[in-house]
Input
Amino acid sequence: MFLLNGKRIIVTGASRGIGFGISKILARHGALLYLTSLSPNRLEKAVQKIEQDPDTRGKVVGYTAADLSKPGNGSRIVKEALESMNGLDGIVYVPPPPPQGFFDELTLEDWKHSSQVLIHSAIEIVKTALDSLKESARLHRNPGIVFVTSIAAWEPDPVITTSSALRIALHGLTQVLARDLGRYGIRVNAIVPGYILTDRLMSLAAKRMPDNPERYLDSLRGKIPLGRIGTTEDMGYAALFLLSDLSSYINGAIIPVDGGLHRKTI
Ligand SMILES: NC(=O)c1ccc[n+]([C@@H]2O[C@H](COP(=O)([O-])OP(=O)(O)OC[C@H]3O[C@@H](n4cnc5c(N)ncnc54)[C@H](OP(=O)(O)O)[C@@H]3O)[C@@H](O)[C@H]2O)c1
Output
């Protein structure tokens, strides 16, 4: 049984890391995908990898490179996706990684870029896609939106100042849209990565411990109750669940995917 049989889904940040891991898992479970990322070359290579795998061949319906730090590109992606897929049943918004750095290293331009990728582009994409998601709900296709956020929203970290300050906005958007769009039958949820092995995590490790980034990764393993760093597939399975009928009554959830790293009782 395919959990996402023919569901038409846009995934951002899809060329590598978390977005690529999610794309692979969704494709393996029957989704039809429209993918986007920044670099046309890297995106094309990612699409080729999905094409070469017999379990996911034919699942990428279209793709386009776009810089999500520039207003207008979120809308363009959605319009192109709607044309390619003749409708839409889901969105996975994986925000481009914002600039890293302590407060005094960051420019005002960095803050503008960060707020564009961490919240404004998500808003633009959902706004442009809304009528199509409503149509999907009318056809009982159980549409869903999944935002990828970050543990920094709960545990601010001065090495990633903009992320720590601004990610929480996507949690707010998740909750308010869940309440607002729920009446149409559109579910909105978020998944919150702790530490997932990707290029982004490696660059953070290099910033933290330039002499020995591997030692930094070991120190993380020591803090995570499950004793391992997450994989992009771990993120993929969480997104799969939230976009499938298995989660039809889950709306407004903000779910950590972090091996038990983040602790809270309320
Ligand atoms: N990895 C972790 O442990 C972790 C933890 C918490 C939160 N996060 C967050 O999760 C998100 C994904 O992280 P990741 O680890 O998967 O990062 P990654 O491996 O570095 O991948 C980043 C993705 O974003 C795309 N991208 C970069 N700049 C872009 C732009 N201006 N416009 C459009 N797309 C752009 C890249 O496209 P190209 O390849 O085409 O450049 C790539 O597909 C980020 O927001 C990150 O901060 C990650």
Observations:
- The CA atoms of residues 89 and 141 lie 7 Å apart.
- The pocket of NAP is lined by residues 13-19, 37-39, 42-43, 67-69, 94-97, 148, 150-151, 163, 193, 195-196, 198-201 (CB under 6 Å).
- The chain has two domains: 8-194+233-254, 197-229.
